[in-house]
Write a structure and sequence with these properties.
10 helices, alpha/beta, globular, 3-stranded mixed beta sheet, 17% strand
Length: 236
């Protein structure tokens, strides 16, 4: 029997995050996990060795390219694109099942949460909720799920250097009804702690705004790591 959902997880040299994610997902015949590794660290193979529900795909690095490759290698009728440093809510399958039951629905996403008790984390969560409500603009760290035929019809992710999630979600929302879930998908706050809580969010907002104004993704990608001087895009 084919799985209902395929979790597509693009990875770039982040063994710890992947191991934590897999620990949070017990084996379930209703879903498969496709980890798409854009790195060359074969030592990560042991993370997947004891998981029959995990399929490892190796590709060149590039989040959009990796997610498209993962979708092509998957079998589920729903695709859920998930960052490696995220943890799905306990009843996440309910959100997909609700969307599946509505034959008109083509996709959705989860509510954004951070894994930190700091008051700054709650403020950022509220700001993200306002952005999604007012602008209909969830990001990839909210776990975008999409019906496979809709994904194929849309041509998948545009293989651009950055903003592939923003570009895809805007097309997804324009192409048919979506059913967002109010369940919280917990994302690691490590980037915010490292770069500064509001500095990181302000920089992300700045880059998205510049993208929507027409600046080339290739140029934005060169700037992406500036707040933490990371040396370029990293996953997640």
């Amino acid at each position: 029997m084919l799985p209902i959902v395929s979790l597509i997880v693009p990875v770039l040299n982040d063994r710890t995050a992947v191991a934590h994610l897999l620990d949070s997902l017990p084996v379930d015949p209703a879903r498969e996990i496709v980890v798409v590794d854009g790195g060359r660290n074969s030592g990560e193979d042991e993370v997947y060795a004891e998981r029959p529900d995990v399929r490892l795909v190796r590709t060149r690095a590039g989040r959009a390219y990796q997610m498209n490759a993962g979708a092509a290698a998957s079998e589920g009728r729903w695709l859920l694109f998930l960052h490696a440093d995220s943890v799905l809510p306990a009843n996440w399958m309910t959100a997909v099942s609700n969307a599946d039951a509505d034959r008109m629905c083509i996709g959705g996403w989860f509510r954004f949460e951070l894994d930190d008790t700091a008051w700054q984390a709650r403020v950022i969560e509220r700001l993200v909720a306002w952005r999604v409500a007012l602008l209909a603009l969830p990001y990839g760290d909210q776990g975008i799920f999409v019906r496979r035929e809709a994904f194929v019809r849309l041509g998948g992710f545009r293989e651009i250097a950055i903003m592939e999630d923003v570009e895809f979600v805007r097309r997804l929302i324009r192409s048919g009804p979506t059913l967002p879930s109010d369940q919280g998908l917990v994302t690691s706050a490590r980037r915010w702690r490292r770069n500064g809580w509001f500095r990181r969010s302000a920089w992300n907002t700045c880059l998205v705004s510049l993208y929507l104004l027409g600046l080339p993704p290739q140029r934005l990608a060169r700037w992406y790591g500036a707040p933490g001087r990371d040396g370029g895009p990293q996953y997640p």
